[in-house]
Write a structure and sequence with these properties.
heterodimer; A: mainly alpha; Cytochrome C Oxidase, Chain A; 17 helices; B: alpha+beta; Ctag/Cox11 (Pfam 04442); 2 domains; five-stranded mixed β-sheet; four-stranded antiparallel β-sheet; 1 helix; 19% helix; flat; binds copper (II) ion
Amino acid sequence: MSTNEHSATAHTDHDHAHHDHKPGGGITRWLYTTNHKDIGTLYLLFSLLMFFIGGIFAMVIRAELFQPGLQLVQPQFFNQMTTLHGLIMVFGAVMPAFVGLANWLVPMMIGAPDMALPRMNNWSFWILPFSFTILLSTLFMDGGAPAAGWTFYAPLSTKYSGDSTAFFVFAVHLLGISSIMGAMNVIVTIFNLRAPGMTWMKLPLFVWTWLITAFLLIAVMPVLAGTVTMVLTDKYFGTSFFDAAGGGDPIMFQHIFWFFGHPEVYIMILPAFGIVSSIVPTFARKPLFGYESMVWATSSIAFLSFIVWMHHMFTTGMPVTAELFFMYSTMLIAVPTGVKVFNWVATMWRGAMTFETPMMFALAFIVLFTIGGFSGLMLAIVPADFQYQDTYFVVAHFHYVLVTGAVFSIVAAVYYWLPKWTGVMYDERLGQLHFWCSLVSVNMLFFPMHFVGLAGMPRRIPDYALQFANFNAFISIGGFLFGLSQLIFLAVIFKAIRRKGVKATDQVWEGAEGLEWTIPSPAPYHTFETPPHVK
Amino acid sequence: MHKPLLYKLLLIGACMFAFTFALIPFYSVFCKLTGLNGKTANSSAIAATTVDLQREISVEFLATVDKSIPWTFAPEVPRVTVHPGEVRVVNFRVENLTSEAMIAQAVPSVSPGQAAQFFKKMECFCFTQQPLQGKESKLMRLQFYIDPALPAETKTVTLSYTLYRVVAQ
Ligand SMILES: [Cu+2]
């Protein structure tokens, strides 16, 4: 969102003869840029686009489920929609949004001039559009897009999948490479480029949570790459990793996938914890309660994420000891997560609170993410899970943690830092409207899913028993309203990019603290070329 | 200045990629040792010394043919009742519906998974590959017993075979 005006102003007083990242004109500026702010902007805009594409797929799903029976789409296409919706939202919307925020904010928060590896940064962004073009192009192929679900269980993704599988695998490889490069960049930046005096225990929590997330990414994205590689060779090259005919085992797929998959869900939530930990103190006008415990809680959640994967597989048949182990290890995660929630509440306690849009989204995050956490605890209970497994209860659970959790935190972050990026305050009236519309519709959309799930409605099926008809019509209306509400968000962003609004001060928010609030708004193209001293 | 750290991170990534593939053999060894996941031993067991006449176990047989091979495949009886330790023989009939010679391999799986290590096969057609001439049919022999150590709460054990085509390498 920093536009060409920077090339005229911020650049005159620097000598850039030896640099390759001088912003040129037009498209090449964005293609060749190595500036962390440009790349952050690219990531965020890309993720916004993907959010709407994945959202359209969700609208197709909800339109089909508006009434029982098959009205609009065929089951095979419905499966393609659920698959692509999941893949696009996870890998195209949520993850790139967090990487975009990291690009914009990590250097500014630690007093670094840029990311440590700017050219790799450029590369890791520009791989993404290719990856998702490949993935989306499968929609127009004979046999259609992948339809095995975003979890692409074998043999659905091997024996019974269409020819688009190869494209799917290649797309996942590309986005995996992109994520790993992005994560390495974050780690190297935080390790090597902290300003003098910025000790580990002074790092803003957003930086801490992203550091831990980056390690999770480096640990599990290669596992995902390995999994899709096995799917590829099983399907096309005669191996049998997941095929009993050759001595393989389809259950093995689930083990490997969820060994990646569970840390992956924390990759999508830890940066959200960092965002909320930045926003709540600002609008409560009090320092964050329990900073150190936040750091330890984040680290222990990251560690625990590696020893819980079989809670996704309770019904595949496993010894009672394993079920007990994974039940208890899963429940254990509630402890550090609870520490965080209590810390946020304690931060607000007796604070001088105001309720601007970022704070509203952060507050909604705390309440609704906690609801998602509670349904997660219910799912962790083995005997209960036998009932909940593969029903809409699971869908309700992970949408509470991912939509009202991860997505709400990203939206909160955009409102919070938008004035710093664009130099103007966003339209508060539209922001509040966006918040209330989203809050009401998202709960209409996902809350009743708990009930239809408990009553036994299976997920991933385009049709359902008549008894679920009223609930599903209501859910679909909630879905459409939530989709429409996001157009308000689009309007807010558009206005801010066009610089329509009150000029923002450097500090932007009265209670904001941190290095990024000491530089001018909008943030100049280059910041902290001489590192600041942190007391 | 950033290179040493970057190389370490790359190494972690490469190790995790390799680790994914190492999980495969680790998993099958683990499952064979513990009998988890319905994997039975692939070699013949010795007869049990005791027969527990007090208990009766219902043993069910399932035979599935993979779509890669146009054969028929079925047990002669769908279910037998045995005492733990008692040796029984059940035959499975296969027929090659094509006029072409083919080789097949049956892959067993036991349910519930915890019962797998107590399902003792003394002789099984699944230990070896089974060739059939075109239009040929034959009876394949399974000789087994249930280990008396089978947990008391297990009353029914299902043995499922899937028949796959073996393509000569
Ligand atoms: Cu999990």
